[in-house]
Amino acid sequence: MIGIMINEIFSSLDGEANWYGQGGRCTFIRFAGCNLSCSYCDTEYALKLSDGKEMSIEEIIKEVNKYDNKRITITGGEPLLQRGGLKELTKKLWHTGYQVSVETNGSLKLDGYGVVSWVVDFKLPSSGQYDQMKEVIFNRLTASDFVKFVIEDRNDFDTAVQRRNYFIANGCAAKFAFSPITGKLEPKQLLKWMQESEVDGILNIQIHKFFGLK
Asked: Is the CB of residue 111 less than 8 Å from the CB of residue 142?
């Protein structure tokens, strides 16, 4: 029996850019444990495996079934640190009729079964984790996937635009989301940069935070 260290399971709004769009109801499964330490991390309570409770696939499905949501977002922490459990869970969710999106940090090879969409962070210089990114992961993303850039300053933005263009030139078919760090960069400023550069991407605002939700 595979056990997965789970930090929390809850229902909320899908607050960020993804294949489903923003604003819909979604059940979140947060894996515990992460291999990176980003400067802007807003889930420090889930960075260690010990921040989770070990649950079987059956226990997770039972908890998920309590919510009337067919959309599932698996997040972290970093789900791919528990690769075997993640693959078995996404397989079970797929066969149970759920639509699954997985959020991951761009440093580990993607591996899942029946995942509708991958949302892959590309860590920019301000994160302190820029050198951990595996560019080949991004080049292989498909039209149902997203690349998310979390941006603190102009250097981050310019780097994001450069990486976006590079990924597209090397086969990436994903959509691109540009997200300002709350308290560090005003959304209006990021929008201005996007308009001036004419970059084809989505201004990604965490709308769930407007309602005090996770």
From this structure: no
- Domain membership of residue 17 as a residue range: 3-211
Would you state the structure tokens that stand for residue 188, as one six-digit string?
């209006």
Contact 172, 141 (CB under 8 A): yes
Q: Name residue 40's beta-bridge partners.
A: none
Return the CATH number at 71.
3.20.20.70
Kindly report the three-state secondary structure assignment for every residue of 96-110. CCCEEEEEECCCCCC
**CA separation (Å) from 189 to 93, 173, 209?**
40, 27, 19
The backbone torsions φ and ψ at residue 174, rounded to the nearest 5 degrees and listed phi first, read: -70, 165
pLDDT digits (tens, 9 = 90+) for 92-105: 999 999 999 999 99
What's the pLDDT tens digit per position in 119-145? 999 999 999 999 999 999 999 999 999
* Full-model pTM: 0.95
End-to-end CA distance of the chain: 30
Alpha-carbon gap, residue 115 to 28, rounded angstroms: 14
Q: How many helices (H) and strands (E) does the chain have?
A: 5, 9
* Rounded Cα gap, residues 5 and 79, in angstroms: 10
Q: Which helix (H) or strand (E) holds 194?
A: helix 187-197
Token pair for residue 41? 């991390």
Count of structural domains, the chain: 1
* Cross-sheet strand order for the sheet of 202-203: 53-56, 3-13, 25-31, 71-75, 99-104, 115-122, 146-151, 175-180, 202-203
